[in-house]
Design brief:
Layout lengths: L14 H11 L11 H15 L4 H8 L2 E2 L7 H14 L1 H4 L4 E3 L9 H13 L20 H7 L7 E6 L8 H7 L9 E6 L9 E2 H10 L5 E4 L2 E2 L14 E4 L7 H9 L6 E4 L1 H6 L9 H10 L6 E4 L23 E4 L15 E5 L4 H15 L8 E5 L19 H12 L4 E4 L13
Parallel strand pairs: 1-2, 2-3, 3-4, 4-6, 5-7, 6-8, 8-9, 9-10, 10-11, 11-12, 12-13, 13-14
Helix pairs in contact: 2-3, 4-7, 8-9, 10-12, 13-14
InterPro entries: LRR_dom_sf (IPR032675)
Protein name: F-box domain-containing protein
Organism: Chaetomidium leptoderma
Length: 437
C-alpha cells in the first residue's frame, strides 16, 4: 500500500543509493581507467545529469572523476573544453582523479588558441607565442594538457604521451611559485608518441617537471628517455614502483641517479640488455655502475624484474650476486646460467624468460628438486615465458619453447610436492602501467 513517505522517484532516494545505481550505469567508475566500458558508462552518466536536473549534483562529480581521453577527431579541442569547465567549476575539478591523453597532434583554430593563451595569462605566466600551434606540432603542443593539470589538485592517475623534442611550458614555471600542486598524484604513466621514422625516446626534462609537482608519486612507468649528463633527477622520496617499458633503453648513469633518488623503491623492472644496446644514444656510465646502484637498494627492493642478455653478467660479481637481495619477494630474470642457490629464502615468485638449451632443462630440474626438499618455503609459483624483447626479433612466440614440453610433467610434479605452481607460457608478457599495483 502506498504511503505518504513512499519515494516518488529516483531523485528522492538517499544519495548513497543513487551513487550505487550510478555504478551499474558506469561499472568502472570505482576502478582504474582502461576498461573499455569507461567511455560508454560516462556517456550514460552525462546524459542522466543533463536530463534529470535534480540528480545533477550527485551524478556530475562521478562523470568528472575520470577523463579517459577523447576518441573524437579533435581530441585537443575536447581537452581545451575540459580545461574551460574545470576553471569555471572548481567544485567539479576537485573530483577529477584519473586523466589520460593520447593524441596531441591537432591544429587548433584561432578561438581555441586564444582560449589557451588567455588562460595562461590569467595564471600570471608569460604569454606564449601566437604561432605555438599553427601546424599542430612544436614544443608547446602539450599546453592544453598542462592547463588541465593546473586545475586538478586531487588527480591520482596521469597517462600522457611524450616525444624527444617535446617540452612542458607551464609546469616548470609553476613549480617555482607553487611547488607540489599535484600532491595526490600516485601514478604517472608516460608512453612514447611514435611517428614513422621518429626516435624512440622521450624528454627527461618533461618527466622531471611533473615529478617536481608530484612529491608523493608512488608508481612511475617510463619509455626510453632522452637524457644527458647535465640532466638532474628530482627526489623520488615516496616512489615504490619504477617500470621501464618494453624495448626501453636508458643511460646506466641515468638509472643510477633515479635509483639514488628513490630510497623507498620496492619494485624495479628494467630491460638490462636494452640499456646496454643503447650506449650509442646515451652518455657515459657502465652497466656495472647501474648494477651497483641496484645493490644499494637491496634493503628496500621486494621485486626485481630483469631481462638479461645471454652473454652478459649483471655485475662484475656475477649473476649469483642476486642472492644478496634478502628482502626481495619476487625475482624475474633472463639468464643463461641458472643457479638453484641464487635466490633468498624469502622468494615467492620466480619468472624466467626465454630459457633455451639442454643445460637449462637440467638446471631447472635441479631447481625443482631443491624446492621439493623445502629450500624455498615461501615460494608460490615458477613461470617460464618468452622474452619480453622477442618482438624486436619479430618473434610472435617463443621459437624453442616447445622443447620444454618433454620435461613439463616432471617439473610440475617436483614443484607440486611443495604446493608450488609451475606454468609454461607461450606468448610474451609485457610490462605496463597495468602491472604497477
Amino acid at each position: 500500500m502506498a504511503t505518504a513517505n513512499t519515494c516518488s522517484g529516483i531523485t528522492d532516494l538517499p544519495v548513497e543509493l543513487v551513487r550505487h545505481i550510478c555504478s551499474f550505469l558506469s561499472p568502472c567508475v570505482n576502478r582504474r581507467p582502461g576498461c573499455p566500458r569507461w567511455s560508454r558508462g560516462q556517456v550514460h552518466m552525462s546524459r542522466l545529469s543533463r536530463t534529470c536536473k535534480r540528480l545533477r549534483d550527485i551524478v556530475q562529480p562521478v562523470v568528472f572523476s575520470c577523463y579517459p581521453g577523447s576518441a573524437s577527431e579533435r581530441p585537443v579541442h575536447q581537452l581545451i573544453l575540459l580545461a574551460q569547465t574545470l576553471m569555471a567549476r572548481p567544485d567539479l575539478a576537485q573530483h577529477m582523479k584519473f586523466l589520460m591523453f593520447r593524441d596531441p597532434l591537432e591544429t587548433l583554430n584561432a578561438a581555441d588558441r586564444k582560449s589557451v593563451q588567455d588562460a595562461i595569462v590569467h595564471l600570471g605566466l608569460p604569454a606564449v607565442p601566437d604561432h605555438w600551434n599553427t601546424d599542430g606540432e612544436g614544443e608547446c603542443r602539450l599546453l592544453p594538457l598542462e592547463l588541465v593539470l593546473t586545475y586538478t589538485p586531487n588527480l591520482e592517475f596521469l597517462r600522457l604521451p611524450l616525444d624527444y623534442d617535446w617540452n612542458l611550458h607551464l609546469l616548470p614555471q609553476l613549480v617555482q611559485t607553487r611547488p607540489a600542486f599535484l600532491t595526490k598524484l600516485q601514478t604517472l604513466d608516460v608512453f612514447h608518441f611514435f611517428i614513422a621514422g621518429d626516435r624512440f625516446d622521450a624528454s627527461m626534462s618533461a618527466v622531471d617537471a611533473i615529478v617536481q609537482a608530484a612529491p608523493n608519486l608512488d608508481s612511475l612507468c617510463l619509455p626510453s628517455l632522452n637524457w644527458s649528463y647535465a640532466d638532474t633527477v628530482s627526489p623520488l622520496s615516496n616512489l615504490r614502483r619504477l617500470y621501464f617499458q618494453s624495448n626501453c633503453y636508458m643511460s646506466p648513469r641515468m638509472l643510477t641517479k633515479m635509483l639514488q633518488a628513490a630510497p623507498r623503491l620496492e619494485v624495479l623492472a628494467v630491460h638490462w640488455d636494452a640499456m646496454v644496446d643503447g650506449y650509442d644514444y646515451a652518455e657515459g656510465g657502465r652497466a656495472t655502475e647501474a648494477w651497483g646502484a641496484v645493490e644499494h637498494r637491496k634493503d628496500s627492493l621486494r621485486e626485481l624484474r630483469l631481462d638479461l642478455r645471454d652473454d652478459m653478467d649483471p655485475g662484475e660479481g656475477g649473476r649469483d650476486s642476486l642472492k644478496d637481495f634478502e628482502k626481495r619477494n619476487n625475482m624475474h630474470a633472463r639468464v643463461d646460467c641458472f643457479l638453484s642457490a641464487m635466490f633468498p629464502a624469502s622468494i615467492r615468485e620466480v619468472t624466467l624468460w626465454r630459457l633455451d638449451g639442454r643445460e637449462m632443462k637440467a638446471a631447472m630440474l635441479r631447481f625443482a628438486k631443491v624446492v621439493a626438499v623445502g629450500r624455498y618455503p615461501k615460494l608460490e609459483s615458477v613461470v617460464l615465458a618468452p622474452s619480453e624483447t622477442s618482438d624486436r626479433q619479430d618473434y610472435d612466440e617463443w621459437p624453442n619453447g616447445g622443447e620444454w614440453d618433454e620435461v613439463k610433467e616432471e617439473l610440475e610434479e617436483e614443484f607440486g610436492k611443495r604446493g608450488v605452481r609451475f606454468e609454461l607460457r607461450r606468448h610474451s608478457s609485457y610490462w605496463s602501467a597495468a602491472h604497477l599495483d
